[in-house]
Amino acid sequence: xxxxxxNGTVVNVFTGELEKTNVLMDGSVIxxxxxxxxxEADVVRDVKDKYICPxxxxxxxxxxxxxLLPPELARVCVPHGTTAVVTDPHEIANVCGVKGIEFMLxxxxxxxxxxxxxxxxxxxxxxxxxxxxxxxxxxxxxxxGHPRVLGLAEVMNYPGVIAGEPGIMDKxxxxxxxxxxxxxxxxxxxxxxxDRYIAAGIxxxxxxxxxxxxxxxxxxxxxxxVRQGTAARNLSDLLPLFEEPWAHRCLLVTDDKHxxxxxxxxxxxxxxxxxxxAGRDPVTCIRMATLWAAEAFGLKRIGAVAPGYTADLLVLxxxxxxxxxxxxxxxxxxxxxxxxxxxxxxxxxxxxMKEMCNTFHIRELTPDDFTLHYSGKKNCRVMKLxxxxxxxxxxxxxxxxxxxxxADISRDIAKIAVWERHRNTGHCGLGFISGLGxxxxxxxxxxxxxxxxxxxxGVKETDMALAANTVxxxxxxxxxxxxxxxxxxxxxxxxxxxTAGAAADxxxxxxxxxxxxxxxxxxxxxxxxxxxxxxxxPVIPHLKMTTCGLVDVDAQKRVDLTVG
Amino acid sequence: xxxxxxNGTVVNVFTGELEKTNVLMDGSVIxxxxxxxxxEADVVRDVKDKYICPxxxxxxxxxxxxxLLPPELARVCVPHGTTAVVTDPHEIANVCGVKGIEFMLxxxxxxxxxxxxxxxxxxxxxxxxxxxxxxxxxxxxxxxGHPRVLGLAEVMNYPGVIAGEPGIMDKxxxxxxxxxxxxxxxxxxxxxxxDRYIAAGIxxxxxxxxxxxxxxxxxxxxxxxVRQGTAARNLSDLLPLFEEPWAHRCLLVTDDKHxxxxxxxxxxxxxxxxxxxAGRDPVTCIRMATLWAAEAFGLKRIGAVAPGYTADLLVLxxxxxxxxxxxxxxxxxxxxxxxxxxxxxxxxxxxxMKEMCNTFHIRELTPDDFTLHYSGKKNCRVMKLxxxxxxxxxxxxxxxxxxxxxADISRDIAKIAVWERHRNTGHCGLGFISGLGxxxxxxxxxxxxxxxxxxxxGVKETDMALAANTVxxxxxxxxxxxxxxxxxxxxxxxxxxxTAGAAADxxxxxxxxxxxxxxxxxxxxxxxxxxxxxxxxPVIPHLKMTTCGLVDVDAQKRVDLTVG
Lengths: 564, 564
Hints:
2 copies of one chain form a homodimer. Chain A is α/β, with parallel strands linked by helices. Helices cover 24% and strands 27% of the residues of chain A. The radius of gyration of chain A is 24 Å and the shape is globular. Chain A binds chain B through residues 12, 14-17, 19, 29-36, 179, 191-192, 194-196, 198-201, 203, 215, 218-221, 244-246, 248-249, 295, 298, 300, 304, 306-309, and chain B through 12, 14-17, 19, 29-36, 179, 191-192, 194-196, 198-201, 203, 215, 218-221, 244-246, 248-249, 295, 298, 300, 304, 306-309.
């Protein structure tokens, strides 16, 4: 079918010009831009006073962070103008290995948003991680034939790259040999170490938190992914990149974005609006979100309104608000005025989906499983949270195990447990955390980077066990428990990370969790689920809790709970 | 070995900035750009007050047009800063088919200039051509695995593309499916026809002769190769492209360049100098000649001075004259102060080389072979040259066959013959040409686009036969004959197109030919060998001579010599 959009103003991403003209789509492809007339089309749409631009591309996100399966994510993002995303299924791969990657590829078939996949490079992230799988270069190999696989995802193990460790270098070599892209993740790396990291074949990064950091990298050949997620928000600091000579080497990404944020604010369009309201040129922003994103991955036929390009395009009301009136995917209208109009596939309940919903392998836990078998007073290492940051401090303080088994709400010291949940090994790290402000009850979650074991924080062993068993019974998810009562819960049965349900439902459950924690005494401004999601990741300094106990991240070694 | 270039000013092709800094090369790769010190290198070179930029890339040329084999071409071009060229072995493929492509790949191994190859898309160029080979999509297929093959060369058959003819569309599809580039060649195509041509997958062109033509194409997603050859010189008309928003979608190419031109003026550096002397920014020119050229072909690790990039780089005296003081290829110095310092391989005399030197298959010719067997006066079609252009006009005029067999120097009418020389079929087209200004003698040449049959022009049958037999005896080349004497000759025994000798020798032989023709009465300003090289190419309007006689190019049909 031939569809003519006439009288529009096309945003030319090659030149930055605005051209009043017509666009003819022939099936899934743009046939031409120019003086096409009604008689050449089967369907004619007058888009007078509106703008036509390519569909937006999110160059880097983890779909698992949205807690949605790809079809539901499309329902949320496509009306905002996103027609392609590049996902790193790092989280599900840590739980389910190659099956997790296969599932994400399968679950993103036949939806009106192209889901490109980068292969997780660091599963597990560190040798302290007890994840559900270990992915070698050989296991990743078979995915490179898939038409939507574009390369190797963020290489977080930058010390390994700089040192030339064979494991990670094999994965990089394998991707490079095939001409694929290798994504970077090396915050604050600079100078000669950055040179070594780049020279290994890593030509982008999404962890820049200042324009100067980004500019050094652009000068050295990297492309910069300007990230604006729900928690990590670099856009305002990187606004200097939204002009030449930097902009054409930059793209827009969300990395980790929560469903409520997507529903309330939007996706890539929200980033463009934010930049435009800060005075940046909307055409430059659109070029960053389209052609320049495609170029970063060597994608040849998306990201422009030009002959032979895939007919993924948007009709925008104006360039001030960058709101999509219509979204075309493969030449068909799939969203209009903020709502999806295309039919989405339903996820089958069998096959890989069934396997993904059976990833919680741990016995029922008891209050004793959350009890430290010490007595009297001992100096202990306590993981101390730093407000607004993912890093933790090591606090060494005296713990009286004879009072509440060491939990001490007067000093804001709660208990923290990480239970291995992939293979029912019974491995568990149990200790103390300070800074949650919790006065009673417990919380539990299966979203716990990067291994996604079962993490439980609380001040009462009975509540900790109830919270843990509640998540266990859901096959994954989050819960808040107080005095033997489950206050609220959010099931995430798909790998313990995602729901098969609707974005609005999960957003509202998530909001309930956020509110419920205050009934445990947690003060405003503290987000305990966001916090606990990172206390088990021993690549972030300084003291972290794993399934095998505390890890001193700086020294990269296990340490005892007690000191001396 | 680690080589440090210190105190230079690096031309940053990503940002356009100039940075005073040091560059460390480690073996064939650039290790880093920054504060590297003497102690980190095995060799230190102080390049104070000089500029460091990437090696230049010629994005499109036919090596056969230089008449040199690749090693000798490297000897000429590398000192001018060229470290990579993209060649289309269209000419040799028309003579030798797949063997010709194999030969060019083999002959360009182990030279300090990377020779990338685009596969000839139009062999033969038209159904009227009687070339040495016919190349199908299936035959091209096997070359796509070669690491230096980058795609499908200039698709000249644009009517075929617009009409969707299966033969050419198969070749394009095959290249696109593998993610390869398809080069364009569609002069003056515009509007909807251009849309159709581009949509077939053709995203560059080197035939633009005006900035407006180029701008339309850039807006539609094509990259523009700004061409400056020996004959076709578009640079001055395309100077408006040497700034944004156009420049980053443009690259520099020579297409067809003669050895004397290369020796006397240079290569890509000459284009940059010409543009700079016309007021263009040298940094923009250098970006066009490096990174943006590499990007056009999806080449990932050449074209920039950055970590991990191949250490192909130049030390320039200044940015006004853009003269290379030193040329580094794979981290080794290969040319200095305009002269090659690297050792070049000598071409073996056996194997493919032997086959390439045995392509002339035609019997010895006699004066009778150049005699038209008509008598009396007849109206005939005469190919009329148009000064300074490749097009010809059809002149219908009365020819008196009883006087000099129709040749008439009083009206500047000579005879023209095209003899099939690949398979000794005896096919021959014989007729008249006007505009050479030849008063006596004959010339003959085996450089005759695109089939490279034996072309002979003259006013005396005995001289025509001698000229033809002289070229035949050389196994290819050019000659000038007068009154039974060979005045000069230039042997081109490699496929009848190239010499295994030195650039200086062939340049001087070529110059002799240019001068000698004046002894036949050819006036200054007429280049008969350049002219005859195109009178047998029935894709250029209006009347051309082939091995099977005259062709009316506009009507795309054979026509008789006589009219009525």
